[in-house]
Design goal:
The protein contains 16 helices and 23 strands. The protein is α+β, with helices and mostly antiparallel strands. It folds into three domains: about 240 residues, PPM-type phosphatase domain (Phosphatase 2c, domain 1), CATH 3.60.40.10; about 100 residues, Phosphorylase Kinase, domain 1 (2-Layer Sandwich); about 190 residues, Orthogonal Bundle (Transferase(Phosphotransferase), domain 1). The strands form six sheets. The chain has a six-stranded antiparallel beta sheet with strand order 13-14-15-16-18-17, with helices on one face. α7 crosses α8 and α10 packs antiparallel against α11. The chain starts with 5 loop residues before the first strand and ends with a helix.
């Protein structure tokens, strides 16, 4: 039987000897899909005592983090989601502190947060609140106190939320095991209970988290703590451990459709004609009967009925498409009345970029810039959501009758957020197309630069009708790629455009463009630095030409020597 992520947690807090309690702590356990895609989150904050709005700062930081984290895109990693939320909270607290209290220290707090997603704990930390991990009778501090000691009895916070417009966050990730207990505590606790005492109390009261938290709080006050005291305990009861059968059962809750043919009706759709068929899928032009709108209906092949990895990849494409809303990306449509396994997308009347290129062997630079700008706009929609398309090629770009380009086929798209979710089988996601895939894709070390490589290849092909590294049937490592200058195929290409193309498709991703905007800019504006770099040694630019030149000079030198000896 499969299990899900389940936890138990307890909180104990008290103002102690102070007039108000500026500590805050809470945890959030979502239901449904969010538990899988976002995980469980918990946080503790300690409003700085010298901060006039410390109490409000800590409360806003805890509640804001636990609310806003779950509002971030599912495609983002935990680190990206939490960092962006904390960055926004920090800027808000800093600005409000200056407005309300006319001080940079108006609303300042520590922050220690934890997100458990799948089988990994992600820790985020600023200040001197602490998070510990208690496992197998041992206690380990996962955070580092951001305190600067002036003397033995005098110190101050060196880092906090709301004290500066820029926030530096400590981040770490840790494997989680069932039975792990995470201890969150403010310095009112940790300043008066040693780690050994905390470990002893966890050992003695581990079966009752609330009793343990209450005892820690009571002992800290008895030991002379004059500060607010707060402790939160979170215990991992079970982790996601889905088997292949479990996932297959979830995926195939919808049955495969019957054998389809033009003229048939399935749910709210009438099939008009078959557009494509392969061993992996069937694609039909269909009409939605309630609206009369023409759409694309795609269904998986029955050959993969018992292959959970393939079915997961099929649904992955729909998952990606539903999260992107951009005019240059094919729109995936909702299917509220779906009774069978298929997906629906908008119908684009036109042709593929490949078909267009076959009719236009070489493209004017202005037309190429227009096409590339549109495709780049679509790619940005992926990259903003931490998605990498990874199969950009002329066949996967459509041009409608109005000249608008749209990216299609999300089957290879790498999603950073879903990559954090453990599964017990390898997801069958295609790895792109050889001549358009960056060399680092061979090892799976992909980034947005991998898509820029693909766009660079398309740009080169638009302008020359050829590929920058020639045609190949199998992936080639970076050290085997030799760039052919675009001007050799099209002498009308300006040298600075050629240099931009060369940089876009550089085998080393670190020497490639890091942003789409930089590539597009250099295609329209001469980059003097690239032109200077183009004067690198002949051996590096053209090894074959270098050795031909060396051989020619050697022959000439030998002839000169022979003539000299003959006249000697």
């Amino acid at each position: 039987m499969s299990t899900t992520l389940t936890i138990d947690y307890a909180i104990s807090t008290d103002a102690g000897n102070k007039a108000e309690n500026a500590d805050a702590a809470d945890a959030r356990v979502p239901s449904g899909e969010a538990l899988l895609t976002k995980g469980v989150a918990a946080a503790i904050c300690d409003g700085m005592s010298s901060s006039e709005g410390g109490k409000q700062a800590s409360e806003v930081c805890v509640s804001g983090f636990l609310t806003d984290y779950y509002s971030t895109p599912d495609s983002w990693t935990v680190k990206t989601s939490a960092s962006k939320v904390l960055g926004a909270l920090n800027k808000w607290l800093y600005s409000q502190g200056q407005v309300r209290y006319e001080s940079a220290r108006g609303m300042v707090t520590t922050f220690s947060g934890l997100v458990i997603k799948s089988t990994t704990a992600h820790v985020f930390h600023v200040g001197d609140s602490r998070i510990y991990l208690f496992r197998d009778g041992e206690l380990e501090q996962l955070t580092h106190d951001h305190r600067f000691w002036v003397s033995e009895d005098r110190d101050f916070l060196s880092r906090a939320v709301g004290i500066d417009p820029h926030l530096e966050i400590d981040y770490s990730a840790h494997a989680v095991e069932p039975g792990d207990v995470f201890l969150f505590a403010t310095d009112g606790i940790t300043g008066h209970l040693t780690d050994n005492r905390l470990k002893a109390l966890l050992t003695a009261h581990g079966g009752n988290l609330q009793s343990c938290a209450n005892t820690m709080l009571t002992e800290a006050l008895q030991n002379g703590s004059a500060d607010n005291v707060t402790v939160q305990l979170l215990k991992v009861i079970s982790l996601p451990a889905q088997t292949e059968d479990d996932i297959l059962r979830q995926i195939t809750e919808l049955p495969f459709p019957p054998n389809l043919a033009p003229g048939m009706k399935i749910d709210d759709y009438e099939l008009l004609r078959e557009l494509h068929a392969s061993k992996r899928s069937e694609v039909f032009l269909a009409r939605q009967m309630t609206t009369g709108e023409q759409v694309i209906l795609k269904t998986p092949s029955v050959n993969f009925r018992d292959d959970p990895a393939y079915l997961e990849a099929f649904l992955h494409e729909e998952w990606v498409g539903k999260r992107i809303n951009n005019p240059h990306v094919l729109k995936t449509l909702e299917t509220p009345k779906r009774r069978f396994l298929y997906n629906i997308s908008e119908y684009v009347e036109g042709q593929s970029l490949r078909q267009w290129m076959e009719d236009h062997p070489t493209t004017h630079i202005n037309k190429a810039r227009d096409f590339l700008t549109q495709v780049a706009e679509g790619l940005r929609a992926f990259h903003r959501l931490e998605m990498i398309h990874l199969d950009l090629k002329p066949e996967n770009i459509l041009i409608d009758n109005e000249g608008m380009l749209k990216i299609i086929d999300f089957g290879s798209t790498r999603v950073a957020g879903t990559a954090e979710i453990e599964t017990t089988f390898a997801v069958d996601i295609p790895q792109g197309t050889v001549n358009y895939s960056a060399p680092e894709c061979i090892d799976g070390q992909v980034s947005n630069r991998s898509d820029i490589f693909s766009l660079g290849v398309i740009a080169y092909e638009l302008l020359t009708g050829h590929l920058p590294y020639g045609d190949s049937d199998s992936p080639r490592p970076a050290n085997r790629l030799r760039y052919t200058p675009a001007r050799e195929y099209n002498p009308h290409i300006q040298p600075w455009v050629d240099r931009a193309l060369e940089k876009a498709v550089h085998p080393n991703p670190q020497k490639r463009y890091g942003a789409l905007s930089e590539f597009l800019f250099d295609l329209s504006h001469p980059n003097e630095k690239l032109l200077r770099d183009g004067g690198k040694p002949l051996m590096e630019r053209n090894p074959l030409g270098f050795w031909k030149t060396v051989a020619g000079l050697s022959v000439l030198l030998n002839l000169v020597l022979l003539v000299w000896l003959a006249h000697g």
